[in-house]
Amino acid sequence: MSATLRGSDVPLVAAHDLALVDLDGVAYRGHQPIAHAASSLGAAREAGMRLLFVTNNASREPEDVADQLSGLDIPASPDEVMTAAQACAALLRTRLDPGAKVLVVGGAGLVTAVRAEGFEVVASADDRPDAVAQGYAADLAWPDLAEAAYAVAGGAWHVASNLDLSLPTERGFAPGNGALVGAVTAATGITPDSAGKPSPTMYRMAVDRAGATRPLVVGDRLDTDLAGARAGGYPGLHVLTGVSSARDAVLAGPGLRPDFVGEDLRAILEPHPLPVATEDGWWRCRDRAARVTTEGLEVDGRGPAGIDVVRAACAAAWAAADEGRPLDASTVPELTA
């Protein structure tokens, strides 16, 4: 399977009726705003695009998320927030009947979501739960992970809200839910099911909730946001304000590749030129170019890289890889949009 960039002659806001927007690394970073996020999302709303914030964070209530967004000048209501906790609880319903016992290892958002689906929340493996729902919470400790391991080893179905190994904070990257889930997996030898990205479950739920016909996924992580978009068949915009860099995009395999790449959320408001291959082996995007040679990735040498160089480099690298000429990662520099 191959995948390459798409072009759009009109701004993405005009081509799509719903933006499924990730939070950390896209709308904000930790508790800090990201430049151009509030103004761009506000302009998208004014242009008629609906917004739904889709996050792998399962620790918080939708009301808390909406309040944080609103405090950063991104007005949002709780029904415009879709959390991994809600997706996790919905996944439990595919196998368990209402009234089943679920050991919740996570934050208040996960407890609320599990109860909302009609399950009985229990606190111990001694309660013989039918499932363990595990999500991130900053105050999780060894006793919580041990209780989950006891229950899973005893036959409980292990469902993780997401498998993100790290999460961005204002101080850098910290262990995410996937790292904590890994401790339980290491202790039990049992691999959990997961409802969060890169599973497309949340995207499908969000699209159904909004009744959208032309959704666009917007994220910063290739291995979750954009992989989920690919898995669900939704076009994805990779913004370079969070975890995955422009270099990561250039080196991405087919299942992780975005359809569009932008410096930040202003990319929603802009057309996206399509890189074009030329007879001399270059891929050109407007007046910038890149190609793959036997020596590795080569970009034109005029000034700072810029987003069009990133687009051209993605097109060149992906085409070479799909032709059986994988790019030596050591030849790919950091590309600053």
From TrEMBL:
Residues 289-329 form the GCN5-related N-acetyltransferase-like domain. It comes from the Bacteria. Gene3D superfamilies: HAD superfamily/HAD-like. One of its GO terms (molecular function) is hydrolase activity. NCBIfam families: HAD-SF-IIA. This is HAD-IIA family hydrolase. Keywords: Hydrolase.
